[in-house]
Amino acid sequence: MTRILALTPWISIIVYQLLGHASGFRPELMQPLSLGLALGLAPIIWYRRLVRQASDLEPAIPAYLVLIFLGFWLFPEHLGQAMSAAALYGVFFLVAAVPPLWGQEPFTCHFARRQTPPKEWRTALFKEINQHLSIFWAGLFALSFLVSLAGGLWTAHDSSRLRFVWAYLLPLAFQAGLGAPATRWYPAYRRRHPGPLLSGAPQRFKSSKCR
User: Fold this and answer.
1) Cα separation of 72 and 29, whole Å?
2) Where are the domains of the chain?
């Protein structure tokens, strides 16, 4: 059951995108779909946060769906495939970039604790690794946002495949081809080569911590 609940937010995103792509993102379908998925996810993610099983990315998903619902309500003719995909990566960028600037822990700490003994969680090196990974993922989400947004530039009737590639496949390729390998490789590398924090990191980001 725990694994099913963990997959539910990501399945909801897949369902939303697949139904949207198949229907041409018609507002009369996407409005109730996005709101229904957000309301259905809310208690699941609340419970997972309560038992400390959900990362910071998970609450961002119902927030994204509510944003999409409002977008289809206010600007129904403008929120198509490219904008829907770009909005998701824009929300993920905010989750990765903003909390550390306020002294909160990077979202990567949630995943790092699964692979690291508890005695290391409060060490300076553990915090530093997650700060760097959070910067990296924020940049990756920003790149995914821009690429997805660029997919909206293909407006010809026969360019649906190009829009799909730019909105979905390229961002996924960035995350699977760059994000996942870097997340596996960097912690081990940094432990072998400890050093100072990134010189350009904001002071508030430097003070953020993994609880």
Assistant:
1) 10
2) 1-79, 103-211
What is the Cα 10 distance to its own chain's centre?
A: 10
Location of structure tokens 């003994």: 117
Q: How far is CA 43 from CA 5, 88, 196, in A?
A: 11, 20, 41
pLDDT of 205: 43
How many CB atoms lie under 10 A from the CB of residue 18? 10
Per cent of the chain over pLDDT 90 is 50
Give the span between the Cα atoms of 144 and 142, in whole angstroms. 5
Report d(CA 145, CA 94) in Å as an integer.
Answer: 11
**Which pLDDT value is given to residue 206?**
46
At residue 155, the 3 state secondary structure works out as coil
State the Cα–Cα distance between residues 147 and 81, nearest whole angstrom: 12
Contact 78, 43 (CB under 8 A): no
Residue 179 token pair: 């994000």
Whole-prediction pTM: 0.85
Rounded to 10 degrees, the C-alpha dihedral 36/2/88/188 comes to 180
| Cα–Cα distance for residue pair 124/54, rounded to 1 Å | 24
Question: CA-CA distance, 194 to 174, in Å (whole number)?
Answer: 27
Distance between CA 191 and CA 188 in Å, rounded? 5
